[in-house]
Amino acid sequence: MTIIASAPAVPAAPASAAPAAGRIAYSKSLLLRKVPRRSTIDDIKTIFESFGAVRDVYIPVNVTTGRKETYAFIEFEALKDSMKAYEYFSTNEMLLEGIILRVDYAKNGRRSPEQMVARPSAAGPSAPAAEPAAPTSHQIHSRVLAIQAS
Predict the structure, then answer these.
(1) Does residue 108 sit in helix, strand or coil?
(2) Entry pTM
(3) How many angstroms separate the CA atoms of 10 and 85, rounded?
(4) Burial classification of residue 98, based on how many CB atoms lie within 10 Å of its CB (0-12 exposed, 13-18 middle, 19 or more buried)
(5) 29-108+135-149, what's its fold?
């Protein structure tokens, strides 16, 4: 995958770490939505490396089904590079396997598999947390790929 157009200039990040109401919360990490399940870490890394050094790409795996989720996290080495990528995708469409990708700043850090299992279910907060299952070979493979990408 390649991006044909060059990334536009981006304004400097605000001095304050806490954004005012209605302002963008800048982050080195981006959340990529609508990622096709056939996409790989390398596909995503190739797209985003054109904006700067990519520290990590992570595609979460659903702990219940073992399938890749349809979102990913991209962490850049430098804030200015994540800002360039965000600005570019805010004004330009990017197709991956025929699907238009959506980019936003990641608001929360990456969750561990244990946190994903323990998150509140649709049944409500009173529902007991599921017992963590042993990771499947697919989950282990996804983790290995995430480590290799960093």
Answers:
(1) coil
(2) 0.60
(3) 9
(4) exposed
(5) Alpha-Beta Plaits (3.30.70)
